[in-house]
From TrEMBL:
<dbReference type="InterPro" id="IPR002219">
    <property type="entry name" value="PKC_DAG/PE"/>
</dbReference>
<dbReference type="Pfam" id="PF13901">
    <property type="entry name" value="RH_dom"/>
</dbReference>
<keyword id="KW-0863">Zinc-finger</keyword>
<keyword id="KW-0479">Metal-binding</keyword>
<dbReference type="InterPro" id="IPR046349">
    <property type="entry name" value="C1-like_sf"/>
</dbReference>
<comment type="similarity">
    <text>Belongs to the DEF8 family.</text>
</comment>
<comment type="function">
    <text>Positively regulates lysosome peripheral distribution and ruffled border formation in osteoclasts. Involved in bone resorption.</text>
</comment>
<keyword id="KW-0677">Repeat</keyword>
<dbReference type="InterPro" id="IPR025258">
    <property type="entry name" value="RH_dom"/>
</dbReference>
<dbReference type="InterPro" id="IPR051366">
    <property type="entry name" value="DEF8"/>
</dbReference>
<dbReference type="Pfam" id="PF00130">
    <property type="entry name" value="C1_1"/>
</dbReference>
<protein>
    <recommendedName>
        <fullName>Phorbol-ester/DAG-type domain-containing protein</fullName>
    </recommendedName>
</protein>
<dbReference type="GO" id="GO:0008270">
    <property type="term" value="F:zinc ion binding"/>
</dbReference>
<keyword id="KW-0862">Zinc</keyword>
<feature type="domain" description="Phorbol-ester/DAG-type">
    <location>
        <begin position="132"/>
        <end position="183"/>
    </location>
</feature>
<dbReference type="InterPro" id="IPR047983">
    <property type="entry name" value="DEF8_C1"/>
</dbReference>
Length: 442
């Protein structure tokens, strides 16, 4: 019933004789019953009957034989019905006839028109570059997001919207040209250093009582607009640029070992902090060496990282370890394979929660097991303490050992500290160098 009703409405729009071209008018004489399909005849009862009859008579094609330009259907449903009808007609009309060819052309036009109506913004580009943002057109229709520009909801079903692939700034297509905030991704690449002063306020007066970002007038009294402080930059923002988002602020972590995301930050700080989260840019030893004195977990992690760096040369020269991709177990913390003193904010968060200690201990155990137990090639690269020449094979990452800084030889820690002279291996090598009979080193 619903179908018929819609079909009837569709036809109603197109029985207007003024819509028809001249040639068609002549052809239509053959199809006199057409004239029955007048709008005033569409009473509820007559409708089904009339429509069915028109369809049965195969007269419907006349609706589509008008020039495409005069086509006025604006409703998607109606267009879909018209397309169905066109398809049916094509099958019914004599093969290769002129009318069938015309109908095929019309079907194509109808489909194009439908496509246009279903996605009216089809002509909007998929990628737009603006203030260093790289906006990519979103396909998702159902997700409800908030526009970072106008702070209202993005209705994916009816509105076109974009997300920056760099900083995840989201906005309506219509708001795009109003954007004044440059992409924070570029800030991350140009200036990959955190502000490490806790909430470095300069005062509203120094900001001319304006939002630090968009320059809207603001005040703490909320007149004309509420001033909100960002705990990361210390500056004040308007409510469009500061949504009271909470974040872990690096300065508070470094100085107070404080992780509660109680502090509120502006939108662009939030995006910046999110992008920086996994970047190993914090050299704790330099920024706050005192941390190691009272955060035990940090000392533990530092030891595990130092051990892993000592294990790395074994893996780089071991075919089996390479094949087993052992070092790749640290692929999401690549810096752990490169140095032992740079930390990302995520590392520190995971250290404070205990997560990093767990996962790193596990990796450390796997690595040590390969070198000391599973792999003959790696085992063969162990050391015998040259000071006492006793005991098990030693490895530089064993807990009771000391390593010569010059030749990397490994000794029992006790033997090494008792030894008041120099490293025997270094001494031997020096002697050989000076021996004219044996110029080659062992
Ligand atoms: Zn918007
Ligand atoms: Zn961006
Ligand atoms: Zn603002
Ligand atoms: Zn090995
Ligand atoms: Zn020893
Ligand atoms: Zn040595």
């Amino acid at each position: 019933m619903e179908y018929d009703e819609r079909l009837a409405r569709f036809r109603q729009c197109h029985v207007n004789p003024f819509n028809r071209g001249e040639e068609e008018g002549a052809r239509e004489d053959k199809h006199a019953p057409q004239h029955e399909v007048r709008p005033e005849l569409f009473s509820t009862e007559a409708k089904t009957q009339t429509v069915d009859r028109t369809m049965d008579l195969g007269l419907a094609e006349d609706h589509f034989s008008r020039p495409v330009g005069s086509f006025v259907a604006s409703d998607i449903e109606q267009l879909k019905l018209a397309i169905e009808e066109c398809k049916r007609l094509i099958l019914e009309l004599p093969e290769h006839s002129e009318r069938q060819k015309d109908t095929v052309v019309k079907l194509i036009h109808l489909r194009l028109k439908l496509q246009e109506l279903e996605d009216p913004e089809e002509d909007e580009p998929n990628l737009r570059v603006l203030l260093e943002h790289r906006f990519s057109k979103e396909k998702s229709k159902s997700v409800k997001q908030t526009c970072d520009k106008c702070s209202t909801i993005i209705w994916g079903l009816i509105q076109t919207w974009y997300t920056c692939t760099g900083c995840y700034y989201r906005c309506h297509s219509k708001c795009m040209n109003l954007i004044t905030k440059p992409c924070v991704r570029s800030k991350v690449s140009h200036q990959s250093e955190y502000e490490l002063n806790i909430c470095p306020e300069i005062g509203l007066d120094r900001q001319d009582y304006r939002c630090a970002e968009c320059r809207t007038p603001v005040s703490l009294r909320g007149v004309p607009s509420e001033a909100r402080q960002c705990d990361y930059t210390g500056q004040y923002y308007c409510s469009s640029c500061h949504w009271n988002d909470t974040a872990v602020v690096p300065a508070r972590v470094i100085h107070n070992w404080e992780f509660e995301p109680r502090k509120q930050v502006c939108r662009s700080s939030m995006r910046y902090l999110a992008l920086m989260m996994s970047r190993p840019v914090l050299k704790l030893r330099e920024i706050n060496p005192l941390l190691f004195n009272f955060v035990e977990e940090l000392v533990e992690i530092r030891k595990l990282r130092q051990d892993i760096l000592l294990m790395k040369p074994y893996f780089l020269t071991c075919k089996e370890a390479m094949e087993a991709r052992l070092l790749l177990q640290l692929h999401d913390r690549q810096h752990f394979v490169e140095n032992d003193d740079m930390y990302s904010l995520q590392d520190l968060i995971d250290i404070s929660s205990g997560r990093l200690s767990c996962s790193l201990t596990e990796i450390h155990t796997t690595f040590a097991k390969h070198i000391k137990l599973d792999c003959e090639r790696c085992q063969a690269k162990g050391f015998v303490c040259e000071l006492c020449k006793e005991g098990d094979v030693l490895f530089p990452f064993d807990s009771h050992t000391s390593v010569c800084h010059d030749c990397s030889a490994v000794f029992h820690r006790d033997c090494y500290y008792d030894n008041s002279t120099t490293c025997p291996r270094c001494t031997r090598m020096t002697e050989r160098k000076h021996d004219p009979e044996n110029p080659q080193e062992a």
